[in-house]
Amino acid sequence: MTYPDDADGQAIAEIAAAGVDLSQPLIIRFAIAVPNQSSAEASLHALAQNGYPGEIDFDEGEPDFDEAEDDPEEFGPMWTVYVEMVELLTYDNVIRIQNELDQLVEPHGGKCDGWEVAI
């Protein structure tokens, strides 16, 4: 099977090539980047109100002083909201869900920032 030539399509192709049975639902974990705690809490509330329960994670960051000069925000603190759901891993599902999540969190400064599956 062929997939679109973008990051999502390439990721699904790699998962399929690893032998994962994509005809079975998988746990897909979506990451939503938010700028601060209040944005994280508002995003979490909006998601839950629309059937997407999730959790908030705060990472204090750990600067690598050799690389911190190149990109000072690379290793800084960051807030993330995670949403897990059981779905068939198809390109259309991933795009649809990311778009739905974006619509819910953009008013609060959030943006879907990728996804992963446990295999």
TrEMBL record:
UniProt feature, compositional bias: Acidic residues: 56-74
SUPFAM superfamilies: Hypothetical protein VC0424
Start and end residues of each Regulator of ribonuclease activity B domain: 6-117
InterPro entries, per the entry: RraB-like_sf, RraB_dom
Disordered: region residues: 52-74
Top-level lineage group: Bacteria
Any Pfam family matching the protein: RraB
Protein name: Ribonuclease E inhibitor RraB
Organism annotation: Blastopirellula sediminis
